[in-house]
Amino acid sequence: MKTILHKANTRGHANFGWLNSFHTFSFGKYNNPERNNFGALRVLNDDTVSAGMGFGTHPHDNMEIVSIPLSGDLHHQDSTGRNEIIREHDVQIMSAGSGISHSEVNANKDKEVKFLQIWVFPKLQNITPRYEQKSFLPADRIDQILNVVAPDNKDAIFINQDAWFSLGNFSKDFSIDYQIKKPGNGVYAFVLSGNVVVNDQALEARDGLGIWDTDTIQFQASSDAEILLIEVPMQ
Questions:
Q1: Residue 26 confidence (pLDDT)
Q2: How many angstroms separate the CA atoms of 130 and 71, rounded?
Q3: Cα(first)–Cα(last) distance of the chain, in Å?
């Protein structure tokens, strides 16, 4: 088994006033050659956007882009005609494929929105751009790992990659094992809140741990905790 630890305070940081963003991997002006990606996982940005502000229309291609609001609401518009509000407990994916333009703006004028923006390299290039969004109830991930993004699960949203995203809300002292779904994949564990021990490595809020060359990963909650698991190909 191999691991790589990224403590929360080692992430890249950019504050533009309207946007406060922490970058687990190289992004924008944060360029760390040792942290360009974890396998097919290219970007993990932890963003806070001020009331009424947001990202203007901009293009993407050949990237799987997942947005997970942690609090507040995000207004998404894109060149396919989509005009959606993404809310807390929703998960959204946009397959940029052959090319798409979109904007993401805080839908509220009176409070900030906090969300994760995650990019994964695609399995197939230049597919027709697509969009999918689904709500996942917190009650369905209490002391369990709930799969929310997958290439093979009709209850999750589809991704153009052999990748699986899962969320867990763990009670203190709860323990569970995660089984790697595809040989050769690794898992990036990102702690949203609380304290978790992953394979004997203690993690705090916003810490990340990449694990690969193993079949099973063990989790033990040291406090009430929320965690995001991103399983991706390592090659």
A1: 98
A2: 25
A3: 16
Superfamily the domain 11-135 falls into: Jelly Rolls (2.60.120.10)
pLDDT, mean of residues 153-169: 98
Residue 143's CB is within 10 A of a number of other CB atoms, namely: 12
Domain chopping of the chain, boundaries:
11-135, 138-233
> How much is the pLDDT for 232?
98
Decide: pTM greater than 0.70: yes
Question: Beta 157-158 vs 145-150: how paired, if at all?
Answer: parallel
Contact 97, 61 (CB under 8 A): yes
pLDDT tens column, 39-82: 999 999 999 999 999 998 999 999 999 999 999 999 999 998 88
What is the CATH architecture of 138-233? Answer: Sandwich (2.60)
Nearest to 186 by CA among 218, 163, 158: 163
pLDDT score of 220: 98
The answer to whether 11-135 and 138-233 have equal CATH topology is yes
- Predicted local distance difference test score (pLDDT) of residue 163: 98
